[in-house]
Amino acid sequence: MGAGHSHEPGESLPPAPADLRRIVTAVIVPLVVATVIGLIVLWPRGPSPQQASDTTQRLHGEIVSATPACPREVPAQPGGDCGTAQVRIGDKVVDAVVPTGPSAPVVGVGDDVVLIGSVDAEGGQRYAVVDHDRWGWLLALVALFVAAVIAFARWRGVASLVGLVVSFAVLLAFILPAIVRGEPPLWVAIVGSATIMFSVIYLTHGVSVGTSMALLGTLAALVLTGLLGLLTTNLLHLTGSGTDEAAILANVLAGVDLRGLLLAGIIIGTLGVLDDVAITQLAIVGELSLADPTLGARQLYRSAIKVGRSHVASVVNTIILAYAGASLPLMLLLVTAGTRTRDVLSTQVMAAEIVRGVVGTIGLIAAVPITTALAAWAIARSHRHAAHTHAQPVEPGAA
Q1: Sign (positive/negative) of CA torsion 321, 248, 39, 188?
Q2: What is the pLDDT of residues 72-125, one digit of tens each?
Q3: Global confidence as pTM
Q4: What pLDDT is attached to residue 2?
Q5: CA-closest candidate to residue 371, choices 311, 322, 308
Q6: Closest to 283 in 3D by CA, of 364, 196, 213
Q7: How far is CA 366 from the centre of its chain?
Q8: What confidence score (pLDDT) does residue 241 get?
Q9: CA distance 83 to 104
Q10: Of 214, 213, 210, 292, residue with least CA distance to 16
Q11: Which residue spans traverse the membrane (predicted)?
């Protein structure tokens, strides 16, 4: 392992001394082994408790013709439907109803839609348009995103995209199926987050002592985030319930740990920001060390932490506003009901969102000094070793 990694914080950093590499290996390897054991123990096994309906099927088609839905002031026809449409599904065209209401889809000729097919009381097939089919436009948007990342970051961008694929693979193949099958959400989130960390950080930024320092800083901050989340949910008596999603989950997955699910969401939601902050602090320490190799660990830390404070100040606002934006419809609903601000913020749902933002931010703040200190120690030690090696006298007759 070298002291730095390619381009971040610099290609010219001296290699780490052998004793430092041994120390890092002795810390990282047991953590990797523990993560692998956790994956084996918690890996989802057996059939999913989710059961598909035998009477309905989800289909995709294209609107051939449509009659407008009735206005909101006109009552819907018996059965709750108002508009009708002809939809091409493969080689056949079927008649489908278009539900009415504020949230009902507004469809026109040529629109790609999603339909639900069901069997009515007389044994006939009945179709209903339930939503627009957005898959094609989503793929186009993702392609634009990929092109933008690769155009700007080039091979580093390709590595980050592969890391993103790994993150979603862990989420979809391990975290969600394990929770569905009744595994403890908190432990699943911890093991899944550790898997993402090891895979993404090393894949994106290279295997080195420097990236190991960033990884250890991220792991320490995640542990702190989990412990603080556990403490606050206990003190505030948060159960993870109170939302429509929680109510549906409680019915679909009997016995699901909603509080553990809340904690898992805090940990996973914090992971991406922690990665960004840790790698940024590592890069700052590396560049400062390249600019002045004589700087010691304490000097590197003091200089890098100033930039870290500015970074945290901007990211904190971003995190809190992101959580506030996600909760905006709920906040608006509570405010229009004439509820006092204190009562709004202390509800089960709003308190949970506040805990998400505050606990995640505290974890983010903790990652900065921890990662900066580890990186400054490792890089300064590598420079001292390199200076000592170059200062050794040359033996007579040595080449």
Answers
A1: positive
A2: 444 444 444 557 888 888 888 888 888 776 677 788 888 888 888 887 767 778
A3: 0.76
A4: 43
A5: 308
A6: 213
A7: 19
A8: 76
A9: 10
A10: 210
A11: 23-43, 135-155, 161-179, 186-207, 213-236, 248-271, 315-337, 357-380
Tell me: pLDDT of 308 over 70: yes
CA 360 to chain centre: 12
CA distances from residue 306 to 146, 300, 301, 369 in whole angstroms, order as listed: 33, 10, 9, 10
Q: Name, in order, each residue with C-beta under 8 angstroms of 38's C-beta and a sequence gap of 6 or more.
A: 187, 190, 191, 194
Look-up of token digits 């490792």: 378
Taking CA atoms, 172 is separated from 165, 179, 264, 310, 356, in Å, by 10, 11, 14, 35, 22
> CA 130, CA 113: separation in Å to the nearest integer?
8
d(CA 396, CA 333) in angstroms, rounded, equals 84
Residue with the two structure tokens 């493969």: 90
Q: Phi and psi dihedrals of 393, rounded to 5?
A: -65, 145
CB 238, CB 348: distance < 8 Å: yes
Which pair of structure tokens corresponds to residue 117?
């097919």
Q: Where are the beta strands (DSSP E) in the chain?
A: 56-67, 81-89, 92-99, 112-119, 125-132
Residue type, 66: A
Q: How many CA atoms lie within 13 A of 399 on its CB side?
A: 0
Give the three-class secondary structure for 382.
Answer: helix
Tens of pLDDT along 144-164?
999 999 999 888 888 888 888
Residue 43's contacts (CB-CB under 8 Å, 6 or more residues apart) are: 174, 178
Which DSSP string corresponds to 213-257? HHHHHHHHHHHHHHHHHHHHHHHTT--S-SSHHHHHHHHHSTT--
**What are the backbone angles phi and psi of residue 395, rounded to the nearest 5°?**
-65, 140
Encode burial over 304-316: b for 16+ CB neighbours within 10 A, e otherwise.
bbebbeebbeebb
Compute CA distances 82 → 59, 61, 116, 365, 385, whole Å: 20, 20, 16, 54, 78
